[in-house]
């Protein structure tokens, strides 16, 4: 049995997919909603909106001799005083799926639901999370 589904994870964004059961419908709707249902930067909560960004970065990882190209998929705040990013990752067992990165390298939850305002790099190359100063700005 095939179930054809149409739904809107947020206003103005319609999605269509097929599912094989009620559980499959819920699984797919929750996966799409987690990614495409995000409509506002959680660092500054601005009215300027967000946009999708894909970046390709070529670098040579530690211990490797050949450079590799990495693709980064992110949501970016359009507020020029904030410019926070919510990065997305994928699992090795399901490289076609995405999930929002809401934890740091130590497994602790990041502030602002994972939205990070770039403030420089610390040792190890990790970005420093926002202090949330952008949320105090008036618009």
Helix content percent band: 10-25%
The radius of gyration over CA amounts to 18 Å
> Could you tell me the strand content as a percent range?
35-45%
- Largest sheet at a glance? 4 strands, antiparallel
Q: Roughly what is the average pLDDT, rounded to an integer?
A: 87
pLDDT < 50 stretches = 130-139
Which strand order does the major sheet show?
A: 3-4-5-6
Global outline: globular
What would you call the structural class? Answer: mainly beta
Number of domains: 2
Termini, distance in Å? 51 Å
Order of helices and strands: EEHEEEE
Number of helical stretches of at least 4 residues: 1
Q: Write down how many β-strands occur, each being a DSSP E stretch of 2 or more residues.
A: 6
Short summary:
With 139 residues, the protein is mainly beta.
Can you walk through the features of this model?
This protein has 139 residues and is mainly beta. The protein has 2 domains: 3-36; 50-136, no CATH class. The protein has one helix at residues 22-36; strands spanning 3-10, 13-19, 50-59, 68-77, 85-91, 94-100. The strands form 2 sheets. The chain has a 4-stranded antiparallel sheet with strand order 3-4-5-6. A two-stranded antiparallel ribbon has the order 1-2. A hairpin with a 2-residue loop joins strand 5 (85-91) and strand 6. The longest helix is centred in the N-terminal third of the chain and has 15 residues, at 22-36. It is globular. The termini are far apart. The relative contact order is 0.15. Mean pLDDT is 87; it is low at 130-139.
Produce the secondary structure layout.
Layout lengths: L2 E8 L2 E7 L2 H15 L13 E10 L8 E10 L7 E7 L2 E7 L39
Antiparallel strand pairs: 1-2, 3-4, 4-5, 5-6
